[in-house]
Design goal:
The complex is a heterodimer of chains A (484) and B (95).
Chain A lengths: L2 E12 L24 H4 L8 E2 H13 L7 E2 L2 E4 L9 E4 L9 E6 L5 E13 L3 E7 L2 E5 L6 E7 L6 H18 L11 E11 L9 E4 L4 H20 L7 E6 L4 E7 H4 L5 E2 L6 E2 L2 H9 L5 H10 L5 H8 L2 H14 L2 H18 L11 H12 L5 H12 L6 H8 L7 H14 L1 H9 L2 H18 L6 H14 L2
Parallel strand pairs in A: 12-13
Antiparallel strand pairs in A: 1-10, 1-11, 3-16, 4-5, 4-15, 6-7, 7-10, 8-9, 11-12, 13-14
Chain B lengths: L4 H10 L6 H22 L19 E2 L9 H5 L5 E2 L2 E5 L4
Antiparallel strand pairs in B: 2-3
Classes of the chains: A alpha+beta (484), B mainly alpha (95).
Chain lengths: 484, 95
């Protein structure tokens, strides 16, 4: 039987506020345990939550970025369950009236086509603390620093049909929240976490199959692996006459499998009700308009503009717009050198290669966008050739000069375009290579084109890479053919 | 709606309340009467009435995103039964 996979994602994004969603405790990562957990976060008696205006603004910015409806009124509810890292006994969340209504996100697939994934809603809630299960004399250690950190939970519709689409969706969300600056998107530190709902159904069937929810899927790569495993598990189960049960499963990246955590019917009775400590949040149109006016250009718009007004390929436009830092770097390079295609090639080629090699992010690039732009300008105005440009790039990378011009001057890399100078170098090379000249003369005319490479190499070497390669080629051919 | 003892047991379990058999029977009656009152409320025609999320006719005030709390871990942990390395210790929880 042919099976179809149906995937929906719940993405939890930690918002980059300075303080917590309902208290004035710091959200900074990596502090000593429990030094950033105040009376409100601990759920001590008599405390009252007060909502952080920045968390509201960030949630709304996300909503506007995914073209969502933003309801005038949203309401906080209590989600009741017991766990030691949730000291209040409930998580303050939004069940019935979330701050962000239905919207949509455009994802880019491997073949550079795009697909729209609908967003069901996004709601604000608080993060829980962390349980440390290392052995504390048979007890569990609790760090509540994370408790109360604002989260935006973004719930998609079940619109994805394979693991690659799910990964592309997660990347699109990552790209939007980092463009907006509402989260650092750091998956390794847990700033962005993902639960995946997966089900399978016979191809052509409209009704959804029973889904399993996979937790702990915390990297782009794991999303694909967890889904691949889970889809196979469900198909095998059904084909062997079994039934998928609705349950929560945990992804174990080390063993590359998902494991049952608990069946939903037992534990999940959260008895939601409106939180009496918090009043309804009311947002007026002027506020929404103000936030809308502050939105930066978003990845999808940038990608479109890179293609239509800069003439970049779909692939280049996608890669260069994927992160805000990459896009800003590219745009500065382009602004300085004026040639979008060259700027794209250098950023994706020489620069990305060097960043990967030295394991650096583009924010930490030793070569600034301005320096790279100037370097490309010198290639465009024929001051240096492509080979010398790579040398200049390396020198800039190694901090051997503050600008391309300075390095070109210091290393004498200025391209030699003076015909007389090139001709005298060619004469010398020909005079010193009688054997190769004889070989050239004696070979078939169609093979000579290849043999000329040797002479070009020698002349370039003699010029220390500074001769204009096209000129060398042309002049060499003339001179060698004159010897025939 | 008529409650049964099993409902009371389940609600008590979810709320982590220890309830004796005698108490459970008493709660069946008490809680059933509360649900009867809810049924009475439900019989009202609320067509066109917006759901009430809060009894106060006010909207949420927001606070500026500023860190105003200082580290008071030592004070908070004085009333905790067990702490170590700055962590609160609780009976082992394993999923």
């Amino acid at each position: 039987m042919q099976w179809e996979t149906v995937i929906g994602l719940e993405v939890h994004v930690q918002l980059a506020t300075r303080s917590k969603i309902f208290s004035g405790a710091s959200t900074a990562f990596g502090a000593e345990p429990n030094t950033q957990a105040c009376a409100v976060d601990l759920g001590l008696p008599g405390v009252l939550p007060v909502l952080n205006e920045q968390a509201v603004a960030m949630a709304v910015q996300f909503g506007l970025a995914v073209h969502a409806e933003i309801p005038e009124v949203s309401v906080f509810d209590r989600k009741n369950y017991f766990y030691p890292d949730l000291p209040k006994g409930y998580q303050t969340s939004q069940m019935y009236h979330p701050i962000v209504g239905p919207g949509e996100v455009e994802i880019t697939l491997d073949d550079n086509t795009t697909k729209r994934i609908r967003i069901h809603h996004a709601h604000l809630e608080e993060d829980a603390g962390k349980s440390l299960h290392e052995d504390f004399h048979g007890m569990t250690g609790i760090d509540l620093n994370r408790a109360g950190t604002p989260l935006l939970e973004i719930v998609s519709e079940p619109d994805m049909r394979n693991a690659k689409e799910a990964a592309a969706y997660l990347k699109a969300i990552h790209s939007i929240v980092t463009y907006l600056g509402i989260s650092d998107g750091n998956m390794a530190e847990g700033s962005m976490r993902c639960d995946v709902n997966v089900s399978v159904r016979p191809k052509g069937q409209e009704a959804f199959g029973t889904r399993a929810e996979i937790k702990n899927v915390n990297s782009f790569r794991f999303v694909e692996r967890a889904i691949a495993f889970e889809v196979e598990r469900q198909i095998e189960l059904i084909e062997d006459g079994g039934k998928v049960v609705q349950e929560t499963r945990l992804f174990d990246p080390e063993r590359d499998e998902t494991r049952s955590m608990r069946t939903k019917e037992e534990a999940n009775d959260y008895r939601y009700f409106p939180c009496p400590d918090l009043l309804p949040v009311v947002l007026d149109q002027a506020y929404l308009d103000h936030l809308r006016s502050q939105l930066p250009e978003l990845p999808a718009d940038k990608r479109a503009r890179f293609q239509t007004s800069l003439g970049l390929s779909a692939y280049d436009a996608h890669v260069l717009s994927a992160s805000r830092e990459m896009a800003e770097f590219f745009e500065e390079v382009h602004r300085v050198c004026g040639d979008a295609k060259q700027a794209a090639n250098w950023v994706q080629g020489e620069l990305s290669g060097a960043l990967n090699r030295d394991n650096l992010t583009i924010q930490n690039s030793p070569v600034s966008a301005h320096q790279l732009g100037e370097l490309i300008s010198r290639v465009l105005d024929d001051t240096i050739n492509g080979k010398a440009a790579k040398q200049v790039f390396q020198a800039l990378w190694n901090g051997q000069g503050s600008s391309a011009d300075e390095i070109i001057e210091a290393k004498g890399l200025k391209q030699v375009t003076d015909t007389g100078a090139i001709e005298s170098m060619i004469d010398q090379v020909i005079a010193e290579s009688p054997a190769q000249v004889a070989q050239y003369r004696d070979s078939e005319p169609e093979k000579r084109g290849k043999m000329i490479g040797y002479f070009v190499g020698q002349v370039m070497k003699a010029s220390r890479g500074t001769a204009n390669p096209q000129q060398v080629n042309g002049l060499l051919k003339e001179k060698l053919d004159a010897l025939l | 709606m008529a409650l049964e003892e099993s409902h009371v047991r389940r609600a008590a379990h979810l709320a982590r309340l220890a309830v004796s058999d005698d108490q459970a029977n008493g709660f069946v009656d008490d809680l059933s009467r509360i649900l009867d009152m809810v049924d009475q409320l439900q019989s009202l025609d609320t067509e066109g009435v917006a759901p009430l999320a809060h009894p106060l006719d006010a909207t949420q005030r927001l606070r500026a995103d500023e860190v105003t709390e200082t580290n008071q871990r030592d004070a908070f942990q004085r009333c905790a039964p067990a702490v170590e390395n700055g962590l609160y210790l609780v009976p082992r929880v394993v999923e």
